[in-house]
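Researcher: I'm preparing a figure for a lab meeting and need a structural model of a single chain. I don't have an experimental structure, so a prediction will have to do for now. The sequence is pasted below. Please return the structure as tokens so I can convert it later.
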Amino acid sequence: MKKVGIILLTVGVLIALTFYADRVTRVHGKTNLSTSDTFAAPSTDLGGKLEPAVTLKDLDGKDVALPDLKGKVVFVNFWATWCGPCQEEIPMLIDMQNKFASKGFIVIGIAMDEEGKSVVAPFVAKELYDVEGQKAHINYPILLGNDQASEQFGGILGYPTSFLISRDGRELKRFMGPPDPDEIAKVVDR
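Model: Understood. Here is the structure written out token by token.
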């Protein structure tokens, strides 16, 4: 009888965690940067702690170290090719990269697919997104993520999860789902 109780409790906890993860990663509304009714994802103020010293491989096999990007506003986006909400926010990320790159802003996509480059590289090369009425490929660097990278950012509950990092390498915000483009623009302009 005790075993049945433990099993029921475990199943209940798993259902609650699944429900919570679904709610925090679900995207509602439009994700076009130019619209004023863009859904703003919940964000968490991180109080300016230093970004983790993460170094990951890009799709060409070159090392990219996040601390080397000091001097830029960096939007680190943890995502996966199989993640529907991640794909929905990609046009907005492409648009942000287009609009803010000249102001010292960069989006860094960290792909968390277990299969790694064999799945991510063909996906990035093939997929086109509607951005401002034009078809566009992902225009920002994609790095191959791992559990250690997500742990250094404090753990990732669901995808997409993103971090806004200041020019001096401090984590400012965590977003679960698409970010508020106006909030990003304010940080870039500062």
